[in-house]
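Case study 2.
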Amino acid sequence: MNNKLAALLSDVFSLPISQIQSDLQQCDVGTWDSLKQMDLVMSLEREYHITLEISDIVRMTSVSEIMAVLESKGVDLAS
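Prediction:
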């Protein structure tokens, strides 16, 4: 898990960073509603200087899917 992404997700969802794992899903996070999804989108776009399409936004229902979307946008999550 990329530390930068984990910190961003921890901040957006108000979760301890230790709970941010690649298998974490939207249904596991009580605060991950439609408003938080938009907060997530804006935070990711700002942090990684990308533009997310509606299909990307709908796809992001887990941390692993968020990572896959970011990688498809050319974001290097290895560092």
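The helical segments are 3-13, 34-48, 54-59, 63-72.
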